[in-house]
Design brief:
By secondary structure, the protein is of the alpha/beta class. It has five domains: 4-199, 3-Layer(aba) Sandwich (Rossmann fold); 207-350 and 451-487, Rossmann fold (3-Layer(aba) Sandwich), CATH 3.40.50.300; 355-440, Orthogonal Bundle (Arc Repressor Mutant, subunit A), CATH 1.10.10; 499-590, DNA polymerase, domain 1, CATH 1.10.150; 597-703. The chain has 30 helices and 16 strands. β12, α12 (314-321) and β13 (331-337) form a beta-alpha-beta unit. The chain is globular, with a radius of gyration of 29 Å. The structure holds zinc ion. The site of zinc ion has 8 residues, from α17.
Length: 704
C-alpha cells in the first residue's frame, strides 16, 4: 500500500533521518498494512518511530497508551517542535484542560494522542474516541499488561475492551525487554495472540557486564569511589534506599572532589527535575540514585552504570544498565556488592513492600465508603499512594470503580454502585499472585548475583529467551577483565571528536585523504579490480560485493580507518566487517599516507581532547601516547587544562604527577623563591623533583 520510497521520504522530512534502524521498516509496513504486531526493540532501538511515522501517514488519529506521564510530555514536546500535532491526556490534567484536549481530538486537530491507561475507562474519553477515526492503537511498555512482567499495571487490562469499543483498529504493542512467556501472555491479554512478532536482539555488545564482590562495606565504598573517579563520561550509581543514596553521594563528593548529586522519590518534583537537568547538561557528572532515576534518561555518553545494590529483578537490572553507552561506545556496568549482605538487604526491603492483610483491608474499606457515596477523594496513606493506587487499579479493572484524577492529595474516583464485599477476596487473590511472581523474579536476580563461573551476558540473554555466542570484545567479568579506564576514556574522546568532525562523506576529514580527480579515478579503478577478484573468489556477481556508486563514494572519501569507511555509501555493519580491512588495504596501497592526522587538528581541539583524557584519569605521559604527541607538548596541555578546569577534576589529575607530600615539599621551595627562576627552586629542593613537578605545584598554588 505504501512504497518504501514514501516511507523514506517521510523519515527524512519529519525526522531528518536517512535510514531505518533494524526492524523499524518491517514493523511500520505491517502496521500500515492494517495488521497487529508485537515489537520488541531494545532501549534506544527506535521504538517510538514505529508509531510516530505511521501516525503521519494514516488518515485518522493514532492513540498511544503509555504509563509514564513525564515521558509522554517529553515526546509531545518533541513532536510539536517538529510541527506534528500531538497531545498528552492523563490524570494530571485539570477538568478544563481535559475537556479542551478532548475537543481538539474530536475536532480532528490532533494526529497523535498519548493517553495514560487509567483514562481508558473514563466515559467522556471513550465517548470522544467513538466520534473520531482511530487509525492505530499503539501500546507502549506492553509488558505492563502481563502480571508475569516486572511492571504489571492492572490498568493495562482495560486496553482489550477499549480496543473493541473503538472499532478494533490495528494494534501495535511495543516493549524493550520481555521474556517469551511475558510476551506471549501480553499478546493474549491485549487480544492479539496471533500477531506477528518482531524481535530484535536485546544484546548490547558495547557494554561490559561485571560484578565485583567485596568482603566489607568499607572495601565496597572504596571500590565504587575508584570506579566513579576513573570512569570518563557520566556515571550513574544505583543505591538501594533513599538514605543510602544521600550518604553515598556525600561520601563520593568528598572522595572525588567534584559535585555528586543524588536522586530519589522522596525529593520534591522540582529538586528531582533540577538534578536530572544538571546531569543531562553535563554540569554534574556523577549521580547516585534509587531506581526512581532513569525513566527517560537518554544521555549518550554514560560510560558507567554502577550498582551498589541488588535490583529486584533481572528486567529492572537490564533496563538500568541499558542506560550506559547509548552512543555505542564501550561502557562498563559493574555491580559492586558485599553479596550476602546486599542480597539480604533487598530481601528485607521487598518484605517491607509486601502488602499485609490489615493494610489492604483498610484501603478496601475506604474505597468502599467512597464508592457508596458515588465517588470522591481517596486520600493517600501517609505520603505514599502506591498501595491505594494498586487496589484502585484492580477495582477498576474489575469494573467496580473509575479513577478520575491522581493528585498529591490522593486519588479521585467515581462509582455508579457500591463495591460488593466479595471484591476484597478477588483483589487479595490478585495481590497474592503478584507477590509470588515478584519473589520468583527476585530469585532469578539472586542467582545472577551468585553466578560463579558462567558468562554473565549469556545468562542475562538466556533469561530473555536469546542465545548469543560470547562476545569477542569486552564481554563480562567472567570472560574478560574489566576494561581499563583509559580504554573508556579513549572511547569518550573518540566520541567527542567524532561529534565535532563532519561526517566522512561530506568531505575532507582527519581520517580520510582528500584526493585530486586523477587520484580518485585511479583509486576507483583499483577498487573495481579488487571487487572483480573478490566476486570471482566468492562466486557471486560483482554488484553483490559493492555497487559502482558505493565504490565511487569510497574513492571520493579515501578513508583511512574503519570508522571513516563506515561513513561511505553502502557500508552497513555486515559489509564493513566482511570487506572493511581489505578495502582499507587497497586504499593504503593506492594512495600514499596523508600527513599525520593530528596535524590537521587545531590546538584548541587537541587541548579539549587531552582535557577529557586527564579528567578521565590519564597522566600526561599516558595521554601523550594516546594523542600521538610529544610528552612535552601534552605536558603543556596539562598545565593549561589545570589552570582552566572548573569542575574540580584537576585535583585528582594532579595526584598522578605529584603526591600530596611532594606538593607540600615543593610548595616550601616555591615560597622560598617567590619571584626567582625555577632553577633556584630546583636547587633549593636538592634536585629531588623534576621541573615538571615544580611547575605543576606552582599551577596548583595559583589555583588556591
Ligand atoms: Zn561473558
Amino acid at each position: 500500500m505504501t512504497g518504501t520510497s514514501a516511507l523514506n521520504r517521510a523519515l527524512r522530512e519529519y525526522f531528518g533521518l536517512e535510514q531505518f534502524r533494524p526492524l523499524q521498516a518491517e514493523i511500520i509496513a505491517e502496521v500500515l498494512a492494517g495488521r497487529p504486531a508485537m515489537a520488541i526493540l531494545p532501549t534506544g532501538g527506535g521504538k517510538s518511530l514505529c508509531y510516530q511515522l505511521p501516525a503521519l501517514m494514516l488518515p485518522g488519529v493514532t492513540l498511544v497508551i503509555s504509563p509514564l506521564i513525564s515521558l509522554m510530555k517529553d515526546q509531545v514536546d518533541a513532536l510539536v517542535a517538529r510541527g506534528i500535532r500531538a497531545v498528552a491526556i492523563n490524570s494530571q490534567d485539570t477538568a478544563a484542560e481535559g475537556r479542551a484536549k478532548l475537543d481538539a481530538l474530536a475536532g480532528g486537530e490532533v494526529k497523535l494522542a498519548f493517553v495514560a491507561p487509567e483514562r481508558l475507562s473514563n466515559s467522556a474519553f471513550l465517548a470522544a474516541c467513538r466520534r473520531i477515526a482511530i487509525s492505530l492503537l499503539a501500546v507502549d511498555e506492553a509488558h505492563c499488561v502481563s502480571q508475569w512482567g516486572h511492571d504489571f499495571r492492572p490498568d493495562y487490562r482495560l486496553i482489550k475492551d477499549f480496543h473493541g469499543a473503538v472499532g478494533a483498529p490495528p494494534l501495535l504493542a511495543l516493549t524493550a525487554t520481555a521474556r517469551p512467556d511475558v510476551r506471549d501472555d501480553a499478546m493474549v491479554q491485549l487480544g492479539i495472540g496471533d500477531a506477528r512478532v518482531f524481535s530484535a536482539s536485546a544484546d548490547r555488545a558495547n557494554l561490559w557486564i561485571g560484578l565485583e564482590a567485596c568482603t566489607t562495606v568499607a572495601e565496597k565504598r572504596a571500590k565504587i569511589a575508584h570506579l566513579a573517579r576513573t570512569s570518563p563520561g557520566s556515571v550513574i550509581i544505583y543505591a538501594g534506599s533513599r538514605k543510602d543514596c544521600e550518604s553515598l553521594a556525600d561520601l563520593l563528593a568528598g572522595e572525588l572532589a567534584e559535585p555528586v548529586a543524588y536522586y530519589h522519590a522522596g525529593m520534591s518534583a522540582g529538586d528531582r527535575t533540577a538534578v536530572q537537568n544538571r546531569f543531562m547538561s553535563g554540569l554534574c557528572r556523577v549521580v547516585v540514585a534509587t531506581n526512581a532515576f532513569g525513566m527517560g534518561i537518554d544521555k549518550a555518553d554514560i560510560r558507567a552504570v554502577i550498582h551498589a545494590c541488588v535490583p529486584d529483578s533481572l528486567e529492572a537490572y537490564f533496563q538500568e544498565i541499558g542506560r550506559a553507552g547509548r552512543d555505542g561506545l564501550p561502557s562498563a556496568c559493574t555491580m559492586v556488592l558485599v553479596q550476602g549482605l546486599d542480597v539480604k538487604l533487598r530481601e528485607y526491603l521487598l518484605g517491607q513492600e509486601q502488602v499485609t492483610g490489615p493494610a489492604l483491608e483498610s484501603v478496601f474499606r475506604r474505597a468502599q465508603a467512597v464508592a457508596q457515596a458515588g465517588g470522591g477523594l481517596l486520600p493517600a496513606e501517609g505520603n505514599d499512594d502506591s498501595l491505594t493506587l494498586l487496589v484502585v487499579s484492580h477495582l477498576q479493572s474489575l469494573g467496580h470503580i473509575e479513577l478520575l484524577c491522581r493528585s498529591s492529595e490522593g486519588l479521585e474516583v467515581t462509582a455508579s454502585r457500591p463495591i460488593p464485599a466479595a471484591a476484597l477476596g478477588e483483589v487479595r487473590r490478585r495481590l497474592t499472585e503478584h507477590e509470588r511472581n515478584r519473589q520468583e523474579r527476585f530469585r532469578r536476580m539472586r542467582s545472577f548475583v551468585y553466578l560463579g563461573g558462567q558468562c554473565r551476558r549469556q545468562h542475562l540473554l538466556r533469561y530473555f529467551g536469546e542465545t548469543v555466542p560470547p562476545q569477542a570484545e569486552a564481554c563480562c567479568s567472567t570472560c574478560h577483565p574489566r576494561p581499563l579506564p583509559s580504554d573508556l576514556a579513549a572511547a569518550a574522546a573518540a566520541g567527542a571528536s567524532r561529534k565535532k568532525k563532519p561526517p566522512a562523506r561530506s568531505g575532507a576529514n582527519a581520517q580520510s585523504a582528500t584526493l585530486g580527480p586523477q587520484e580518485q579515478t585511479a583509486l576507483f579503478e583499483r577498487l573495481r579490480e579488487w571487487r572483480k577478484r573478490k566476486a570471482h573468489e566468492m562466486g557471486v556477481p560483482a554488484y553483490i560485493v559493492f555497487g559502482d556508486k558505493d565504490l565511487q563514494s569510497i574513492a571520493e572519501a579515501a578513508p583511512r580507518t574503519l570508522d571513516a569507511l563506515a561513513g561511505c555509501r553502502g557500508l552497513g555493519p555486515v559489509k564493513l566487517k566482511q570487506y572493511g580491512s581489505e578495502v582499507l588495504a587497497e586504499i593504503a596501497a593506492a594512495v600514499p599516507a596523508p600527513e599525520p592526522a593530528a596535524v590537521r587538528v587545531s590546538r584548541a581541539e587537541m587541548l579539549a581532547r587531552a582535557g577529557e583524557l586527564f579528567a578521565g584519569g590519564l597522566a600526561p605521559a599516558e595521554a601523550a601516547v594516546r594523542l600521538e604527541r610529544a610528552e612535552s607538548t601534552v605536558f603543556e596541555y596539562f598545565l593549561d587544562w589545570l589552570a582552566a578546569d572548573e569542575t574540580g577534576r584537576w585535583k585528582q589529575a594532579v595526584r598522578l604527577v605529584i603526591s600530596p607530600e611532594d606538593y607540600r615539599a615543593i610548595r616550601q621551595g616555591l615560597r622560598a623563591h617567590p619571584e626567582g627562576p625555577l632553577s633556584a627552586v630546583y636547587a633549593e629542593l636538592g634536585e629531588r623533583y623534576t621541573y615538571e613537578q615544580i611547575r605543576v605545584a606552582r599551577a596548583v598554588m595559583a589555583k588556591a
